[in-house]
Inverse folding.
């Protein structure tokens, strides 16, 4: 389940809403992480799901804690991460996911009414 072309690397880290949000590449997975920051940290039971609202939508993160690392919340993007041919591609993908997470979705343009054949034939624009 490990991709021998990948190692462990933080592909991005940003401050957002009083917490730190990161993209982490590992040989077995690519994850988004939420780490404590300036805001009060919400403690939870290990493996509890916590829903976060980001500009791009709502996402479930799983709560965890490590004796040497401290508390964190994780959202899996790729597990296992076998489809990546290089560390560069994996890091670029993780960084793009982090950027997309923090960006509001772009609304598609409203559809325009289709022009009738007469209007098209006589060079009139649709009303």
């Amino acid at each position: 389940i490990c991709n021998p072309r990948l190692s462990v690397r933080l592909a991005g880290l940003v401050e957002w809403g009083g917490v730190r949000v990161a993209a982490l590449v590992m040989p077995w997975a690519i994850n988004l992480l939420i780490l404590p920051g300036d805001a009060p940290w919400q403690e939870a039971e290990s493996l509890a799901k916590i829903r976060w609202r980001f500009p791009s939508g709502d996402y479930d993160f799983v709560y965890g804690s490590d004796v040497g690392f401290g508390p964190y919340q994780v959202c899996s993007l790729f597990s296992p991460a076998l489809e990546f041919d290089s560390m560069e591609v994996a890091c670029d993908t993780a960084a793009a996911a982090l950027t997309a997470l923090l960006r509001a979705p772009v609304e598609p343009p409203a559809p325009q009414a289709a022009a009738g054949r007469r209007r098209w034939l006589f060079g009139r624009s649709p009303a």
Notes: Helices lie at 87-101, 117-121. The chain is about 15% helix and 40% strand.
